[in-house]
Amino acid sequence: MLCERCGLHRTRRNIVVGRGDPGARVWFIGEAPGFKEDEKGLPFVGPAGQELNKALEFLGLGQGKYYITNLVRCRPVENGRNRPPTDEEKAVCGEYLLEDLGKYNPGLVVALGRHATFSLLGDIGPMTKNSGTLWDFGKHGKVFVMLHPAAILHNPDLRKRWADSLEKLKKVLPCI
């Protein structure tokens, strides 16, 4: 049976769970599916996904070396446009995410953007200040905080912060 735990099931085309290898040691967690993701049933396949794919290539993470998912598995939409997920939607889907994290136990979670970061770690302050920082995540290993790739598409001034964070992440990966 398909999930109907929140109202997002009424407008979704697909439940977007993940892409890559869930058994990988590195997980990337974003906010929620957008239009392209809802259409294809895979996370990060639109413009932000193209940025993330460039980052994966820079990091040397080929197929089987990562898993990509979101906090929310269905597209939050209002008036035909993407919207941020509500706290309720994040809490409902967050249960699935925590279950998956417990099952697969990756060593490193890369939180992409404010919604993923705050849902995993709590309010740690401004993303522009904390992007590129590593946090303890208890039994789930570590969380590396990064800007969401969509943020650099909407604000090119953040591209240097994105690049600096990728450099730091590249140094962390061999330790995982």
Structure description:
This protein has one domain (7-80, 90-175): Uracil-DNA Glycosylase, subunit E (3-Layer(aba) Sandwich), CATH 3.40.470. 39% of the residues lie in helices and 16% in strands. The model has no long low-confidence stretch (mean pLDDT 94). The protein has 176 residues and is of the alpha/beta class. β4 and β5 form a beta hairpin. The radius of gyration is 15 Å and the shape is globular.
Write the layout of secondary structure elements.
Elements: E1 18-20, E2 26-30, H1 35-40, H2 47-59, E3 67-70, E4 77-78, E5 81-82, H3 87-104, E6 108-112, H4 114-121, H5 127-130, E7 134-136, E8 142-146, H6 149-154, H7 159-172
Parallel strand pairs: 2-3, 2-6, 6-8
Antiparallel strand pairs: 1-3, 4-5, 7-8
Task: Produce a short descriptive summary.
The chain is α/β, with parallel strands linked by helices and 176 residues long. It has seven helices and eight strands; from the N terminus they run ββααβββαβααββαα.
Secondary structure category: alpha/beta
Largest sheet data? 6 strands, mixed
- What's the arrangement of strands in the largest beta sheet? 1-3-2-6-8-7
Count of extended strands: 8
Unreliable spans are none
In the CATH hierarchy, what is the architecture at level 2?
A: 3-Layer(aba) Sandwich
Mean pLDDT: 94
Comma- or semicolon-separated keywords:
alpha/beta, Uracil-DNA Glycosylase, subunit E, six-stranded mixed sheet, two-stranded antiparallel sheet
